[in-house]
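Thread: quick sanity check before group meeting

JM: Hey all, I'm pulling together slides for Thursday and realized we never actually wrote out the predicted structure for the chain we discussed last week. Dropping the sequence here so it's in one place. If anyone has concerns about the input, flag it before I start.
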Amino acid sequence: MARTARFAALFMPLALLALGALAPRAALAQTPSLAGNYLGALGPLNLRLRLTAAADGVLSGTLDSPNQGAFGLPCADFHLEGNTLTFTVPSVHGTWQGTIENGGSTLSGTWSQGAPMPLTFRRDTFLASDKPSAIDGAWAGTLLEGTADELKTQFTFRSDRSGKEYCTADSPDQGTWGIDCGEVKWSPPDIAFEVPAIKGSYTGKLSADGRELVGLWKQSSTVPLTMTRQAKPLAPPPPPKISYLPAMAPVDAEAMQAVLTQDFAQALKSGALSPELGTGVTIGVVKNGVARVFAWGSARADSLFEIGSITKTFTGLTLAQMLEQQRVTLDEPVRKLLPPGTVPKPAGAEITLLDLVTQHSGLPRLPDNMTPADPRDPYADYRALNLYQFLDKHGVGKPADPGFLYSNLGFGLLGQSLADRANTTYPKLLAEEVTVPLHLDDTVVSLSVPQQARFIAGHTAFGRPARGWDFDAMAGAGALHSTAADMLAYLEAQLHPGQWPSSAGGPARTLGAALALSHELRADADPGSRIAFAWLYQEKRREYWHNGGTGGYSSYAFFNPQGNYAGVVLLNRGPGQPEIADLIGRHLSQRLAGEPAVIFGD
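JM (edit): ok, ran it. Output follows.
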């Protein structure tokens, strides 16, 4: 998961998530009201489930994992039948299924993210004070007001019957809601609290008239923050409306631009893809050997974008190349690829290269020693030494049944360890093994001066300017830039690995076998999906896919060997709700297959 510094680090994004499909929400019918907050625990992880019910009885929600710094993860696919409830959390490929008990106060069930684990949610039974304190309620302000980096903020205070104060933090401009504050110290008129998840703190005073909090927000720097009392708290926007257009005959590559222009006419005119938002999207499609690239908005056909987590598939192919060249083995412990003495051998099972490339290592999403100097560029100063220090503390032991757990850390480690084995850097290794043999001249970690001129400006999901991201030790998780043309060449190689004969010279001689190897399905992912070497595989559609997201860019790529087609969507907006790149990518695939095509509300 590249915002502004200071308060923006509060919501340093969960970078490079693989975000799943959105689906219709469930009506509440005659079951007890489920709206409210629920608390649960998954091993050492504390979780908060926030459920809301619309006026028409439709259920939606978000999930927080404060221990991992994850807040507001959208839930989807709500299905309610009697007292049985299911929903998914697409961004982490998780599914919860269970029953509603005790009049809606308990949700007892199972969490599946590979291996099923029991997970019971209990309604938050906070008892509000009969007489609210002078600070209770919602307070909103703006950090860095009048600058390009300004951010709306909101803090909500409430006191319980013992007089203890609690607080949550929101950043509406970043779509982040409900981050827990630490201990609140309220000694009228002085107020002080921390927000541990983002290492921020506030100190201030309540004005004599009780209408303002005047103080300082401290994070990587200290800035003034004055907040005013809100008669009505700022609230998250309603979930996006997702619907489907009727199926039509399978569309060829030549006709795709005209079809999509018609399908997304409203979005292109005044919606999420409209010119006034600065949105630029480049789309590439190939079917039966015919390729087309086209662009909308501020993008050009040859624009360069950050492709985020699609980089993981390149890292997976690099692993396959080194396997075919017998430089590593799939069951080899990652410990053995690292510099000697980096991490001790664990007592039991340990993480292997196969575990890393299939997201079954048990490693967390991100290391806990990431402290970026500039949260707008969160990976730039995370070096190999930082990674090794984390591993020395965390270890490389593998849980008994880790299941599928999406980890940027895992792929950063995979890329770094392969580079260590090859005694080079990740960018040089990737070029040698993948991008040079495939003639992908515009697929690079670092841009040349001419390429910088074609690098399209990025924006957050809320339309604010966003800078590009730089990577060091975590490069294998999401460092690449590319164009639609390069990505189509890459996807055509995926469709037809046999075009790379073993008689070729250099690393190209193993490329065909490596491509085929990287497609072999190795483990379960989210329901209905499996995983190969980073590529996720939809079993029903027999289609490989991956997506990506950085602070100012999002992407989606897929290939379908059975249908002999592939496509890529590159967008200069960071991930949000809806996930525009994902939806365009799914729509593109469905039009190629002649299926009903998903579309989002404007």
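AS: nice. The first strand starts at residue 26 and ends at 27. The chain has three domains: 6-123, 137-230, 283-459+472-576+589-600.
JM: adding both to the slides.
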